[in-house]
Design a protein that fits this description.
The protein has 245 residues and is mainly alpha-helical. Helices cover 78% and strands 0% of the residues. It contains nine helices and no strands. The relative contact order is 0.13.
């Protein structure tokens, strides 16, 4: 190992972090599905509590797992063309957006059918703020990077903001999920929660796994030697294309 560049040594650990993040992410989705399926009667689309169960599953799948994977693509696909990675990044975000919309429609539909007021809890405020900012971030990303109408100088100015808000939104998504988990437990098993019931323990484990997923993704994205290496040829082609345009 002596004489090996630090970045090369660090890159050897990248696949392990990526695999770990995927194990954590899939576990979060599976546990959410089991929680809603086993303890709350499964899934439906009829205004019942089974329709509400669609909400947590979609939000964990969309705004946490798929969103986190979209953040990771620039670290995982280091040698593919930047254009291809941009398209994958945007498509994963679009999948997360569609699934999240399904989750939001489910909870609003359930509240309307059950005559429950909308948007009164801290969880709903944080969750809606996260979704709106995510949608704005996605639109700005399309405009600045995938279909770049902006100048190279404007894109270079916005890129650090795009990266910062990308990580911030992942943290907000995880935080909103934690608020939702706590709210769901207090509504349903408040009297038995302190007795370490199976549902309470399962939900607590889900919360810890969500935090771990967010931490691993954040670490991979912010570690300097995991960054995608610059490609002067791609940058030159990009500048040339903008000049011709």
């Amino acid at each position: 190992m002596e004489g090996m560049p630090v970045s090369m040594g660090g890159l050897r650990t990248l696949p392990w972090y990526v695999v770990g993040s995927q194990v954590l992410g899939v576990a979060c989705v599976v546990i959410t599905g089991v929680w809603m399926g086993h303890y709350h009667g499964g899934y439906a689309w009829d205004g019942s509590t089974q329709e509400f169960n669609v909400h947590p599953l979609c939000m964990v799948l969309g705004l946490v797992f798929l969103y986190g994977d979209a953040v990771l693509v620039y670290r995982v696909f280091r040698n593919e063309t930047k254009r291809s990675v941009k398209i994958l990044h945007a498509l994963l975000h679009m999948m997360a957006l569609i699934i999240s919309i399904v989750g939001l429609v489910a909870v609003f539909d359930f509240h309307s059918a059950a005559k429950i007021p909308h948007m009164y809890s801290l969880h709903s405020w944080c969750g809606m703020l996260t979704f709106v900012l995510f949608f704005i971030q996605w639109l700005l990303g399309l405009g600045f990077f995938l279909f770049p109408w902006a100048s190279a100088r404007l894109r270079s100015w916005y890129l650090p903001l795009h990266i910062f808000f990308g990580l911030l939104l992942l943290a907000m998504s995880v935080g909103s999920c934690l608020l939702g988990i706590t709210e769901k437990l207090l509504f349903n098993i408040m009297e038995t929660y302190s007795r370490f019931t199976g549902e309470g323990v399962l939900a607590n484990i889900l919360g810890l796994l969500l935090v771990c997923f967010g931490v691993v993704v954040g670490y991979v994205v912010t570690r300097e030697d995991f960054r995608r290496p610059p490609n002067p040829e791609e940058e030159a082609l990009s500048v040339h294309f903008k000049t011709l345009s």
